[in-house]
Amino acid sequence: MLEISSKTNLLEHKSYKYSLQDVAEPNLHRDVYSYDTVPKVAFNHRRVPMGMPEEIWITDTSLRDGQQSVEPYSVDQIVHIYKLLSKLGGPFGIIRQSEFFIYSKKDREAVEKCMALDLRFPEITTWIRASREDFKLVKDMGIRETGILVSCSDYHIFKKMHMTRSQVLDQYLGTVKDAFSAGVIPRCHLEDITRADFYGFVVPFVNELQALSREAGIPVKIRACDTMGYGVPYTEAAMPRSVAGIIYGLQHYADVPSQCLEWHGHNDFYKAVANASTAWLYGAGAVNCSLLGIGERTGNVPLEAMVFEYAALRGSLDGMDTTVITEIADYFTNEIGYRIPPMTPFAGSSFNQTRAGIHADGLMKDEEIYTIFNTKKILGRPASVQISKTSGLAGIAYWVNQKYGLEGESRVDKRDPLVLALKGWVDLQYEDGRQTVLTDKELEEQVRNLAPGRF
After folding, report:
1. How far apart are alpha carbons 248 and 242 in whole angstroms?
2. Cβ atoms of residues 403 and 444 within 8 Å
3. Phi-psi region of 17 (alpha: psi -120 to 50; beta: other; left: phi over 0)
4. pTM above 0.90, yes or no
5. CA-to-CA distance for 126 and 145, rounded, in angstroms?
6. Are 367 and 373 in contact (CB under 8 A)?
7. Helix H segments across 322-356?
8. Is the dihedral of CA 42, 48, 53, 54 positive or negative?
9. Checking DSSP bridges between strand 2-4 and strand 11-13, what pairing results, if any?
10. Does the pLDDT value for residue 442 go beyond 80?
């Protein structure tokens, strides 16, 4: 049957529906995932059309997936993180939702306190075990939507759950019916989708979910979970690793609208951000992230990265307050005690800092030469230098100007007697075997010794 597609406005075939393939043996894609070798990236040279939705947004899992990989947050910490997410996301709710656990009394207390703030964004959602009791709990707390786990690869179906595809399908559909009976929107987390039999299980399963959704008159959301970070953003990559292919397939063969389609990735192969951006570009409305990328193993998609991806792809921050990223980094460092790797983009202590003299020389002439953007304006963090054996005269001059707020004619240059004297002292430190960078406190003390009363 031919139908006009609401997405492309072209006639498309809609007659073919993929059926469940209830195989006797699991499809483990051993040609790609042999376990004793690095997973392979195969190409089939099939392209799918790029189609970014009219509206895209970010969802947050810092308080669910993120919290699983660190010391549990206190109730007050959860509430403060939630407020920071709201502030960062801005008045238009680009950070649309945040998911919470509700297993324990402490979890529920945190949710209740966040709900009491009456913030429009991010909407509070939950993640639960798939049971009638938990659905009732979600409903009783006044929460509209919850995530439920529906593992979809044969690694999970056969090896972990010891079931067949048809048995798992029936179990999952029963769970979703329970959610609909409770009046709750189910968000189905298709765990391990990048190792699943996409057309033999995933598409037939999602088509069944869509049929239940139409019958209940309640939407069902689909979260495509790249649980092991196997997804790749490459054009013409073959399934099951193609992010574009997964998103296109869920839309084209399972009729999942963009506003109900979400990507959740991990960073095992350093592709989390690129994969999330690809998901947006090919039709997913939402990408699921955690602050600072904190999550299982190598972590989730860093939320702050997708803030900048959004701005780059849309040409606007649309009300997001990026200076809050610095507040978040300070809070995680000073209040939670989490150590952010110094080189972490946008949030690490060294992300816009140089130790190289040649770079400092460029900063002295025009900071745009070696700074990715106006970090003082966008993040509330000016470009800076650390003094080490490679800083040179330019690095020391830049440090002095920045430390003492010297501008215009007051600025010192590489020929200033103080800079020359400091350079001599710095060289002596490293000639004596020092390996570490010099601290601001040490440098300030030498300035007082070399130029008493100057600043």
Report:
1. 10
2. yes
3. beta
4. yes
5. 7
6. no
7. 323-331
8. positive
9. antiparallel
10. yes
